[in-house]
């Protein structure tokens, strides 16, 4: 299952808060995609989730639009 979280138009720290809340609701092996148009969101989300066992992939899918893919590892 992949959860998609729309953070378009949200300013920091809102995308990071939504990402952390979503991550905590994931089960092992599940993924979430956080979509944001705020340029600092990818690095802020990475910083917020670095304490957890997860994979994070960041893609700029269109100019200024980011998909941050989070996979819970345990």
UniProtKB/TrEMBL annotation:
CDD domains: SirA_YedF_YeeD. Residues 5-29 form the UPF0033 domain. It comes from the Bacteria. It holds the Pfam family TusA. This is Sulfurtransferase TusA family protein. It comes from Tissierella simiarum.
